[in-house]
């Protein structure tokens, strides 16, 4: 019986993970569930899955959850705060950790899981964007098994030789790989005239044509920053340089990514756009588990289109590519500026096409260093957020 902690259980990845686990109760036990402030959802999950611990980032929400579970005569122990997140990620009794907290908030608990040598199902791309070098070095030291959950990186992993273990520093040429090809749907504004992007609303940006995601990730998909973060993440996961990774638009989201080999072969992983597929793959590896995902109908999905990425339409992708090449703490600055800009857009304080402008202005004045530890990464994050807020105030005042 494997014990699983889910960091971010009330989000879309967390909910999908619980759905897969529920199909295999003879193999998996939920050890801990965590959330930021949605205590009612976490209460319902606790009553259904009976974890040993429930952790809330917000102490007030934790108190409400504690009271609700007491009323329901539940034995689940409620904890709160950042230290508790790290505790349930690194606990000796835990075998597997789903790292699904969105954004920089997931950095420390995910790092704690890797440091403790867990099987880490990595759905938080920002961890590698902010501290990829430190994260992968720690995985190598501790023997942690890092398995990608983003559908694109999971697809790449499935297309690599079965013997590959991520984080061990194997160069792509040693595997006969010439290129990694990340696919992108293009989001909801792939065909919208560029001149109209300034009028896009948060509701429109969150209406992704293929995937059901939270607001932050949905906006990132609309700006293509999501693909930019995945680009940086791919470089760290697969020991690749920026020139080894290509991004192509694939509107149907059926091919999740591809690997091109030196002999001319291109291997692709296909499937319906449902996150339960990569989750089940990572949970069961090396076995294959039933995921609950509807089978792909090749006849109904006979048309598969591909387009070149237009970086003028999607300047966030261009910024991410530049940052991937620059390295140092630049990726942490990019991520921080993006999180602040997206939050301002969702709060109607910033126009959609100003998100990239905020990020670019933060990067222009950012002094990058090589991060020696997480404290350096966190300092870069905090500094970039302050600068982003200044730029947001300036641009927001011009609306």
Give the CA-CA distance, first to last residue: 56 Å
Individual helix count: 15
Strand elements, count: 12
- Largest beta-sheet characterization: 7 strands, parallel
Structural class: alpha/beta
Could you estimate the helical fraction of the residues in percent? 40-55%
| Content of β-strand | 15-25%
Rg from C-alpha positions? 20 Å
Mean pLDDT: 92
Shape: globular
The strand order across the widest sheet is 4-3-2-1-5-6-7
Describe the structure.
The protein has 399 residues and is of the alpha/beta class. It folds into three domains: 147 residues, NAD(P)-binding Rossmann-like Domain (Rossmann fold, 3-Layer(aba) Sandwich); 149 residues, no CATH class; 73 residues, Orthogonal Bundle (Rna Polymerase Sigma Factor, Chain: A), CATH 1.10.1740. The protein has 15 helices and twelve strands. The strands form two sheets. A seven-stranded parallel beta sheet has the order 4-3-2-1-5-6-7, with helices on both faces. Helix 6 links the parallel strand 6 and strand 7. The mean pLDDT is 92.
């Amino acid at each position: 019986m494997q014990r699983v902690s889910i960091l971010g259980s009330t989000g879309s990845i967390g909910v999908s993970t619980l759905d897969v686990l529920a199909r295999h109760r003879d193999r998996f036990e939920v050890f801990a569930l965590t959330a930021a402030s949605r205590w009612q959802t976490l209460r319902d999950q606790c009553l259904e899955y009976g974890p040993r611990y429930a952790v809330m980032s917000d102490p007030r929400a934790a108190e409400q959850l504690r009271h609700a579970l007491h009323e329901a005569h539940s034995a689940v122990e409620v904890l709160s705060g950042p230290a508790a997140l790290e505790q349930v990620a690194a606990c000796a009794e835990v075998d597997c950790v789903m790292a699904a907290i969105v954004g920089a908030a997931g950095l420390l608990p995910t790092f704690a899981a890797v440091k403790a040598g867990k099987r880490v199902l990595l759905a938080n791309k920002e961890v590698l964007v902010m501290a990829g070098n430190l994260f992968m070095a720690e995985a190598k030291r501790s023997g942690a098994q890092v398995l990608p959950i983003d559908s694109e990186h999971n697809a790449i992993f499935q297309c690599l030789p079965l013997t590959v273990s991520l984080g061990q520093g194997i160069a792509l040429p040693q595997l006969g790989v010439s290129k990694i090809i990340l696919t992108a749907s293009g989001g909801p504004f792939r065909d919208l005239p560029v001149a109209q992007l300034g009028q896009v609303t948060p509701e429109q940006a969150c209406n992704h044509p293929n995937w059901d995601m939270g607001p932050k990730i949905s906006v990132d998909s609309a700006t293509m920053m999501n693909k930019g973060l995945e680009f940086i993440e791919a470089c760290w996961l697969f020991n690749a340089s920026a020139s080894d990774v290509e991004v192509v638009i694939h509107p149907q989201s059926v091919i999740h990514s591809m690997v091109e080999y030196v002999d001319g072969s291109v291997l692709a992983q296909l499937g319906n756009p449902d996150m339960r597929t990569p989750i089940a793959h990572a949970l069961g590896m090396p076995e294959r588990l039933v995921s609950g995902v509807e089978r792909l109908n090749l006849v109904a999905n006979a048309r598969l289109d591909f387009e070149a990425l237009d970086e003028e339409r999607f300047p966030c992708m261009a910024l991410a590519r530049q940052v991937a090449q620059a390295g140092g703490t630049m990726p942490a600055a990019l991520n921080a500026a993006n999180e602040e800009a997206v939050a301002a857009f969702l709060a109607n304080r910033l126009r959609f096409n100003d998100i990239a402008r905020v990020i670019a202005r933060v990067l222009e004045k950012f002094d990058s260093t090589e991060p020696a530890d997480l404290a350096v990464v966190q300092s870069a994050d905090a500094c970039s957020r302050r600068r982003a807020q200044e730029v947001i105030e300036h641009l927001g005042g011009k609306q």
